[in-house]
Amino acid sequence: MSLPESTSVYDLPRRRSTLRAALVSLRPRQWTKNLLLFAGIIFAAKLGDLSRWGEALAAFAAYCAASSASYLVNDVRDAEHDRVHPVKRARPIARGELSARAAEAVAALLLVSAALFAAPLGIASILLLCSFFALQAAYTLALKHIVLLDVMTIGGLFVVRAAAGAAAVEVRISPWLLLCTALLALFLALAKRRGELVLVGAEATPGRPVLEGYSLALVDQLVTVVAASTVISYCLYTFTARDSKAMMITIPFVVFGVFRYLLLMHRRDLGEEPEEVLLRDVPILVCIAGWAACAAIILAVT
């Protein structure tokens, strides 16, 4: 019996054990987003302070646990929809490798762990973690289905991460850096939406409901505006930096990074999984390493 012409067949990976399925569902590759928690200690030039490194690591662990908990809850809610998606259908919960009850139990354990990691860091860290929980819950339950608010919420989550990193080590972070963080996150979120639109169009399969409110033309315009705003905001940060105007030297790294991502997004349609681009594209990895090294040296010697 032959399949109808409109039917698509996908090769799924071999069934995973429950333990491996649980680990995959935590999405450890996306923990790279939480590296932003170290921005506070880096920009405060406290790299030699071991006690503050301990606090930064505790904050990082808290947000990795909180992020993974949100991924589990999200996958439980979206399991039915994920089963018809050309990429997300391979997620453990969608495939039935991890039950909804087990996923929710692990999520609860992770939330408790996150609170325990954040508790010794002070009231500000606890309040920021609660804000992260609340914003993430609002995104999972409703905001991810609302055009524009979905990507703006993602930007807000990154701002909370940056602020939490600074609060954990008790240092001040520039408002310009917080703005740059929000804009960069918005840029990546819009690139992800573009990638999803391209994928859905190419595979002729159902996409996320929120995608109906977007179009490639609209997203491309929004990406252009946000990319330019990101670069301008970073330039303004370096121009007004209290510690050292020498941070202007790092501007080319930021410009190249944004340009490189735009190139990949348009020529290779790599925007759907931003963390994959950050982990695999050598020029971007070199750019990030160069920026980090240059910024660390400048902040350490000035």
Helices, by number, come to 13
* Fourth-tier CATH superfamily name of the largest domain: UbiA prenyltransferase
- The separation of the N and C termini measures 73 Å
Report the strand count.
0
- pLDDT < 50 stretches: 1-9
In N-to-C order, the SSE pattern is: HHHHHHHHHHHHH
Helix content: 55-70%
Count of folded domains? 2
- Looking at the overall shape, the CATH architecture of the largest domain is Orthogonal Bundle
SSE-based structural type: mainly alpha
Report the biggest beta sheet as strand number plus sense, adding barrel if it closes: none
Give the assembly state of these chains: single chain
CATH topological fold name of the largest domain: Tetracycline Repressor, domain 2
Radius of gyration: 20 Å
Q: How much beta, percentage-wise?
A: under 5%
The top-level CATH class of the largest domain is: Mainly Alpha
Quick recap:
The chain is an all-alpha fold and 302 residues long.
Descriptive notes:
The protein is an all-alpha fold. The chain has two domains: 19-173, Orthogonal Bundle (Tetracycline Repressor, domain 2); 174-204 and 211-302. It is built from 13 helices and no strands. The longest helix has 29 residues, at 175-203. It starts with 17 loop residues before the first helix and ends with a helix.
